[in-house]
Amino acid sequence: MEAAGRLLERARDERKPAVLEAMTYRFRGHSVADAGTAYRTQEEIEEWKEERDPITLFAKKLLERGVLGSQEQVDEVREKARERVGKAVELAEESDEPPVETLARHVYGDGDSAEQFARMAPGSPFGERELVLRGEELGR
Q1: With contact defined as beta carbons under 8 Å apart, do 137 and 130 qualify?
Q2: How confident is the prediction along the chain (140 residues), in pLDDT tens digits per residue?
Q3: CA–CA separation, 70 vs 78, rounded Å?
Q4: Helices H, strands E: what count in the chain?
């Protein structure tokens, strides 16, 4: 988070590009046709889940620091999260498709969003090109 903050500040203040590399690990394969076990063992996958998964590590820290008192509380938090995500997916699947021209709205949630998008607008002082998808120009 600290590194991302530094790079974001640099991008906004100095208008310089940057790359942030995040090392990740997939617990599943690339697709339905790929179980992900042809090139790694199930033991490797389980080891990563137990020893390096950030959610599991965070739960362990919460237990160690007494923020959560038991594994049952961790399980309860996970179940509530699953329910919440499930409801969000259900709502999304039942909703109408949003208009294409709204694609770039609400991408950022901070107070600088309007200013950031204004800098990217066609004709901006930095010369960015218009956002085009499927041959359609996207408005704001």
Answers
A1: yes
A2: 899 999 988 988 888 888 999 888 888 888 878 888 888 899 999 999 889 998 999 999 999 999 999 999 999 999 999 999 999 999 999 999 988 878 777 766 666 666 766 666 555 555 445 554 444 444 44
A3: 13
A4: 5, 2
Question: What pTM does this model have?
Answer: 0.53
Say if CB 120 and CB 128 are below 8 A apart.
Answer: yes
Cα distances (Å, whole numbers) of residue 89 to 28, 83, 95: 20, 10, 10
Say how many residues make up the chain.
Answer: 140
Say what the pLDDT of residue 72 is: 96
What token pair was written down for 84? 């919440």
CA distance 50 to 40: 16
Residue identified by tokens 């490797």 is 44
- Name the residue with tokens 């509380």: 73
What DSSP letter does each residue of 76-117 carry, written as one string?
A: HHHHHHHHHHHHHHHHHHHSPPPPGGGTTTTS--STTHHHHH
Domain boundaries, the chain: 99-140
CA separation for the pair 21, 6 (Å, rounded): 14
